Queue: 2 jobs
Job 1
Amino acid sequence: MAVRYSKNKGFMIQYKCTNSYVNTFSPIGDVMKNGGVDKRIVKTKNAIRTAFKELVQKKDMADITISELTEAAGVTRSTFYMYYDSVGAVRNDIEDVILDQIEKIMNEADLVTSMLNPYPLLFAITNEINKYDEYNRYILSSNNSGELLDKLKKMIIDAFVATMQKNTQIQINVAKAKYVAAFCTAGICETFKMWFNHQSTLTLEELCSHISQMVSKGLAMANDMIRE
């Protein structure tokens, strides 16, 4: 087991399962005085998340009741309310796990190079999402993907603009740069959403390659527009 801190949700615990790690979040309140984490709390929250993932594949999230969720998780309502105040809060918790991993990928990437060749970053991000979505199609389903995609788009836009501002070789118009980033990011997210939700003959690698070519050409054309 390894523990690290995330600014999104607090302490993230990594449990090793065979040759891979399973990530879960534990809020600061779950951390004991000696720096450890209460495994009972982690086990309970994981049971609630797992129950949510199973139920949301059978019905829309808006139709899931707390009674259904607690019964499926094998916990009482009072236990549920110790950690979450609604069904939506459970989904937000799961999404934050994914976003934290994506944030880590972006922090480790060279975003300037990624603007010229977006393929490595695109593939790393979508492959991360695909890890979770393999068994939980709700993540990018048409009814439930809105908030996750909005958070992801904001994360990418902010990172793109911040990188451009740090590049002292060019002076940019921040407002225009945000529009360019929003345009590109929205198109990319919708394209991947279609790919995740429909059977396609394209592999993930091929899709990322096609999008990368379009984005790099588009950014090259937009380069003059965002300069001061």
Job 2
Amino acid sequence: MPKYNNLGLVNHAKQALNLKTKYMWGGILRPIEQQYDLLRSIYGNQSGTGYTAPRWAELAALRNKGYYGVDCVGLVKSYYWSGKTDGGVGSPKYGAKGYPDTNANGMFAAATKKGKIATIPEIPGLIVYCKSHPHVGVYIGNGETIESTLGNRGDGVVKRKLDDLWEYWFACPYIDLIDPREQGYHYSVKYAANARRQPSLKSGFVKKYYPGEDVYLIDPENVITDSFSRYKYVQMIDGNWIVLSALKKA
């Protein structure tokens, strides 16, 4: 069985962000046509789900057009039901042994590591949670979240800045938690980028950090610190830590 963890959850959320998605209560990131009949038979026009006759008609028109449906907690569950460490679309089944079907409130209640949003650590793959109106999203680091939503925040999977909607954070209780700051987590790479004395933030070879933070690169789509440099090749530029020597992921 694959080992699921918070960094894989971030990869999964980013994959979902690049798809054409619509919010579907009960959806687990499957093509709309694979979920439409079942979800409509279960929920109909039930209040609080976002489903109405016009909404069902809108979703029906998107069948077989490359759209995927998912709700907020479904974005998380579809990761650990995917059968793949890095996640992906189309969970082969609804549920998996050891990985329960739960809602946002149940997931938060089961979590042992949690806190108020003002205390969220810089660990990608934590879950952000709104308790007053049950809703979850995935914290991807650097003050950004990915969530599946419906309404004035969007329709489907969107990326947003961490904002005052969120009241709490927690570590998903059903997957492993990797803290890159403690473990020096590294991704596989194939070639090194040259050190730059005057790095350009648009080059893709450097990444900003705020003063006082440990310097670790945690975005698998960007760069990681050279494992031989032991995080020494950094410099404060314009109030931010800049990594000067890094490896670019192939």
